[in-house]
Specification:
Helix content: 55-70%
CATH class of one domain: Mainly Alpha
Oligomer: single chain
Largest sheet: 2 strands, antiparallel
Strand content: under 5%
CATH superfamily of one domain: Fumarase/aspartase (Central domain)
CATH topology of one domain: Fumarase C, Chain A, domain 2
Radius of gyration: 31 Å
Shape: elongated
Number of helices: 19
Strand order of the largest sheet: 1-2
Order of helices and strands: HHHHHHHEEHHHHEHHEHHHHHH
Distance between the termini: 36 Å
Length: 471
């Protein structure tokens, strides 16, 4: 209890994402890179024996963490620490481990692998959110609700249509995530400053062997794309692009969390609230939207980190400078862990969200008379009225009604005022038809169903195997 604990590790992120950025996975990948490097080098004619390769394979998971710590304190260099610790276990292979490569061969290629695997974890969680959002949208595709501009009642929409706005934003992120996954490049083997000078010596000037090594090791780790040129490191713009993607997902989640908090204040819906959950230590009646607030908080954090990776990309010197290292250790993992937590919260909210149709109806009825002014104008003009004159009379009646409601506490008598105004040519029967909420939602219901069919369902079908049918 005397040391700082990272809340992302202690409370928020999933075990799979925590393992993805764990030291264990990272350093096992380092050893796999060494092994595959030696295998291909042997295949291309270097003096490496099968016995040495088998020695490395046998000791792949045999990590002596105490020896690693000892060597790191001694050398102040993590790669050399692991190289020496691995060499103590794989004694036969020791002379050829890390042959021709630099620290960036391990660090950069491993980071690209972790980024790829992290994106795949997030992809699955986005699909879950989309799945439950689709179900929610279908269930309420034709339920009228107040639509807001400037957080002021504007017209009517449907609850399902509002959910399409959340889904559309998330689908844009999903499309970007797919693009990043499909275009992610492996660093491969490039040497100390990107010229592969060491491999020119090892392969006696045979560039084809170097190119084959570069391609083969990239393919072995599942990458069809490999950077054609690098400095010592891969272009740090990649990190900036990835963190921008994570920022975009966070922007979408923040928008959703804000909407939920606003609507929960209106009592129209609420996020899940446990039977024994306490909303406030002082005000026992409260049901605070803590999960939406947590989403909002984590989202702000991720959005802020994206600026950090942009600064790193912009300020790299020539072929390499090490002022990226500590920053990248922090921001890449932290961003992934945060978005992982965000998506889990998002799924849990939308999966078990509670909707209160009666409150929604009550709120509609309170504002509805003001929302039909455009329809009244259109109908009045059809009946021979003057558009500008009708508009002015409606404006005066609405302002008077607002005054009476806000300052005198009266009910909304706007419709009565309109029907009693002889200069507004509209009959009572027509007014009853206009004031039905179902007649005021435009094509919201149809838009919702079409959007789900054309934009959402194709993604859910494409990633059907990722969805656990028992949840």
């Amino acid at each position: 209890m005397n040391e700082y604990k990272n809340p992302l590790v202690e409370k928020y992120s999933s075990k799979e994402m925590l393992y993805n950025f764990s030291p264990k996975k990272k350093f096992i990948i380092w050893r796999k890179l060494w092994i595959h490097l030696a295998m291909i080098q042997k295949e291309l004619g270097l003096n490496i024996s099968e016995k040495q390769i088998n020695d490395m394979k046998k000791n792949l998971y045999n990590i002596d963490w105490e020896r690693v710590d000892f060597f790191e304190k001694k050398f102040q260099h993590d790669v050399m620490a692991h190289l020496y610790a691995f060499g103590e276990k794989a004694k036969i292979a020791k002379p050829i481990i890390h042959l021709g490569v630099t620290s960036a061969f391990l660090g950069d290629n491993t980071d690209i692998i972790l980024i790829r695997d992290g994106l795949k974890i997030l992809l699955k969680k986005i699909i879950y959110v989309l799945f439950f959002m689709r179900n929610f949208s279908l269930e309420y595709h034709d339920l009228p609700t107040l639509a807001f501009t400037h957080y002021q009642p504007a017209q009517l929409t449907t609850l399902g249509k509002r959910a399409t706005l959340w889904m559309q934003s998330l689908i844009m992120d999903l499309e970007e995530l797919e693009f990043r996954l499909n275009h992610l490049h492996f660093r491969g083997v490039k040497g100390a400053v990107g010229t592969a000078a060491s491999f020119k010596d090892l392969f006696n000037g045979d560039i084809k062997k170097f190119q084959l090594l570069d391609k083969k090791i990239s393919n072995m780790f599942g990458f069809q794309n490999v950077f054609p040129v690098t400095g010592q490191t891969y272009d740090r713009k990649v990190d900036s692009q990835i963190l921008n993607l994570l920022s975009n997902i966070s922007q979408s989640s923040h928008k959703f969390s804000n909407d939920i908090r606003l609507l929960q204040n209106l009592k129209e819906l609420s996020e899940p609230f446990g039977k024994e959950q306490i909303g406030s230590s002082a005000m026992s009646y409260k049901k605070n939207p803590i999960y939406s607030e947590r989403m909002s908080s984590l989202s702000k954090y991720v959005i802020s980190l994206s600026n950090s990776s942009a600064m790193v990309a912009a300020t790299q010197w020539l072929e390499r400078t090490l002022d990226d290292s500590a920053n990248r250790r922090l921001v890449i993992g932290q961003s992934f862990l945060s978005v992982d937590a965000i998506l889990m919260i998002w799924k849990n909210i939308i999966k078990d969200i509670v909707v209160y149709p009666k409150v929604i109806e009550k709120n509609i009825n309170h504002e509805l008379p003001f929302l039909i002014t455009e329809y009244i104008i259109v109908e009045s003009v059809k009946n021979g009225g003057d558009r500008q004159e009708v508009h002015e009379r409606i404006r005066k009646h609405s302002m008077k009604t607002h005054f009476d409601m806000q300052w005198k506490g009266e009910k909304n008598h706007f419709i009565k005022k309109i029907l009693c105004d002889e200069k507004i040519p509209i009959c009572k029967e027509k007014m009853k038809k206009i004031i039905n909420p179902k007649n005021l939602i435009g094509f919201a219901s149809e838009q919702t169903l079409e959007f789900i069919q054309k934009k959402v369902n194709p993604f859910l079908k494409k990633y059907y195997q990722l969805i656990d049918k028992n949840i």
